[in-house]
Structures are given as C-alpha cells and as structure tokens.
Amino acid sequence: MTGHGTAVRHPMREPAFARLWISGLLTETGKWTLQLALPLYVLQLTRSALITSVVAMLGLLPSLIVAPVAGTLVDRWDRRRFLVCVSAAQAALLPVLLLVDGPGDLWLVYLVTGAEAALTVTFETVKNVTLSTVVAEEQLVSANAAIGLNVSLGRLIGSPLGGLLLSAAGLPHVLAFGSGAFLVAAALASTLPPTAAPRRGSGAGARFWPGVADGLRTLRDVPTLRGTLVCVALLAVAQGMFVVLFLLFVTGLLHGGDAQAGLLRGVQAVGGLAGTATAGLLTRRLGAPRLLGAAVLVFGAVSALTWNLSATTAALGIHLALFTVAGAPAVWLAASWLSLVQESAPLPVRGRVLASVLGLADGLQALGMLAAGLLGGAAGTLPALNVQAALILAAGLLALKLIPGRHPPMGTDGACRPHVARHNGPAQAGERRISTHAAPPATGPATRTTP
After folding, report:
1. Helices (DSSP H) in 94-134: which residue ranges?
2. Angle between helix 381-402 and 347-379 (nearest 10)
3. CA separation for the pair 78, 47 (Å, rounded)
C-alpha cells in the first residue's frame, strides 16, 4: 500500500478503467430505466399489484441459479469478449417485449425479465474481475468506489428517464433506449485489453461442473472472505427490507408522495460523490477491513437516526440532509467489501467467488423484501425500519470482529498460504497483478446498499 506521502494516480486516469467505467454507467442506466418502466407497464396492463411484484422479484432471484455458472465461465473465457457478448445479448433480448400486446403475453415479460437479470449478474461479475486486473492495488478501493457510484448515477438518470419515456412515448421508446445503452456498452468493452486463456490445471481450466463449487469453497476457507460474506449477507437482507419499507416511510411517516421519494433517493448520489472522492484516502489510513466495519457502522447509525427522527419531525429538508450524508458511507462500504473480495480471491477462481457473493446477496435481498412485508404488517413501519437499521449495525460489528486486519496470501488453488507470496501465474495480456493481502493499518492518524 502506498505511504502517506505518496500521491496515488486516480484510476480514472487509466484509459482501460475509464472505458470500463463508462460501459458500466451505460449498463446501469439502461438497467434502471427498465427496472422502473417494466413494472409500471405491467401494472398498467394488469392492474395487479401481485403480478407487478412478481416482475420485480424476477429481477433478483435468477442470480441464485445463474451466478455460480456465470462465475465459472468468467474464469474460463476471455473477459473482454465475455463483456461484449453479455451486453449485446442484453440489447438483443429487449425487442422481444414489443410482442407483448395484453395480459396473455405476460410470459414474455417474465422470460425477458429473468434473462436480463441473469445477464446483469454475469456482467457485474465480469466487470468486477476485469476491474481488479486493470488497476494497481493501491487504486483498487478508489476504482470500486467510482464503479459503485455508477449505481447511484444510473438510478438517478435511468429511473426518471424510464418513467418519462414510458408516459410520454410508450414502451417501444424505453426498449430502444435500453438496447442502445447496452450496445454502446458492448462497443466500449470491445476496446478493453484481451485476457489470455487459462493455463491447463489451473482452477479456471479444470472440469466445468466440479469447478462451479470452487467459489463457495474458497469463501468458506479464507477468513477474510468468510467474514466479508457475513457482513454482505446482513447488508443484503437490510437492503431488501429497505426496498419495501422506504415507500411506507415516505408516505406514512413523512406524509410525502412520489416526488419526495424520488428526491430522497436522488440526493444520495450527492453524498456518493463525496464518498467516491474520499474512499482512497480513507483506505490508505484505515485499510479496507477497518474501513468496511467503520463505514457500515456509520451507515447504520445514520439510518437509525433517519427512521426515528420521523417520529419527531417530517420536515423534508432534514431528511434530505440525512439521506445525502448516508450516500458517502454507502459508497465506502460497497467499495471496501468488493476490494476485499478481489484482493483475497485468487485470480483463477475470482470470478466464481465474486459471482457467489453477488448471487447470495441478491437471494438474501429477496428474502429481506419478504421479511419486511411480514414484519411491517405485523409490527408497523417504524419498528420494522429499526430492525433494518439493527441488521446494518450488526453487520458493522461483525465485520470488525471477523475480518482480519491482515489476511494471508492465497495460492492459485485457493488455499491459504501464510507468509508465502502469492502468484497468479504469468500476468495475462493487458492485466496487472494485484497483491492479495491488505496493508497493515497505518501508524499515523486514524486512517446491486442504500438507506
């Protein structure tokens, strides 16, 4: 890790990363445009809240099945070509929805929504593995923070755009925009450096089906990965609860409507910009493990304050300020857990490890949605929100307890090898080798989540 006095080149100055960042932003924008417009379209078509919720859930559940297979493919194929193929497939699927002409054609909506969700988790896996090979270790958290900002920006741009296009021009224009965004993302991905085929005998080149479980075994066997997964799992359940409870919070406790809900979600991007700008500095002072625990605790404290302050005041300005503040730790925690996974997983199985985490997180987020519906109905909105905040705080405490400040290097077979330098094998074309161990905390001064 770079010392205090050494300036670190921002990853956006790396041409390959900048192209990957723009490609990710386009994909996020297209995704959020569809995630807003398609459920609304289905609601207009069916007038059924149940069917609309099924469409929303189909955006998460396929990850549980697809993620392990997608991770194995990421470890076996050229990642540049894989990114291009996935983005092109996302674009090619959308015109199928033009065939939907009534409730009897809803099976096409289910099919396309599930397929797009599967392609999305695949894209995220390939993108995050690629990111870890095009920047240096000291740039990793800053790079992940910049990539994480894409989620906020994509939502901020895509959600209003999806509603506007659907209401003003209809579903065909929504689909045209989405396909166009995915195609441009594919074109940008085609300019990234290629990656070499895996060597025979490596984790990536081994038999396919036995290799699918390697990501889960690596998560189980590596303390840093195991602790990070516990933290991410609790955050995913909390995020699922938030998705359901947020609108109840706005309409029931703040007495607001759609405009206030959109504004509260949007201002998080402002805090996210501050989080992106400071993530690298905080990592150099704290180290990624401590930053993760601290960021989650701050995030949970802001969430608890926001929910409980609604019992005293419904003033929109106060809650806008709190949601803005929450945007910064949200970026820090996302960037730090991604960096820990990227640093701790050997390159030959990194795709499988990342895909397993993303798939499990999506499944647990769906579980959180269900839990929020049951708990909110039984106990009320504010008690349910306090449970959500408590889960976040528990995740922060467990992160500080379970994730080592230093974690031993990993071999290419995924086994822990303390005190032995890890090698990923010869650097593949266009890739940088990333060290797998976090730097010790500095001796100077204290160095697919949202509330």
Report:
1. 106-134
2. 150
3. 45
Which of these, 80, 88, 89, lies nearest to 20 by C-alpha position? 80
Within 249-315, residue ranges assigned H as helices are 258-266, 268-286, 288-309
Dist CA 143 CA 366 (whole Å):
28
As a whole number of angstroms, the distance between CA 17 and CA 23 comes to 10
**In the structure encoding, which two tokens stand for residue 267, read together?**
């201002």
Dist. CA 5–CA 7, nearest whole Å: 7
132-161: pLDDT as tens digits = 888 887 788 888 888 877 877 887 788 788
Q: Which of 116-125, 252-261, 317-326, 418-427 has the highest mean pLDDT?
A: 317-326
Which token pair is 282?
A: 């905080």
Alpha carbon 255 to chain centroid, angstroms: 30
CA of 38: how far to CAs of 35, 57, 170, 229, in Å?
6, 12, 11, 31
Residues 32 and 172: their CA atoms lie apart, in Å, by: 16
Mean pLDDT of the chain: 79
Answer yes or no: is pLDDT of 49 > 90. Answer: no
Amino acid identity of 90? Q
Burial group, residue 252, by CB count within 10 angstroms (0-12, 13-18, 19+): middle
Rounded-to-integer distance, Cα 286 and Cα 282, Å: 6
Nearest in space to 46 (alpha carbons), one of 5, 107, 89: 107
Angle between the N-to-C axes of helices 214-221 and 347-379, in degrees from 0 to 180, rounded to the nearest 10 = 80
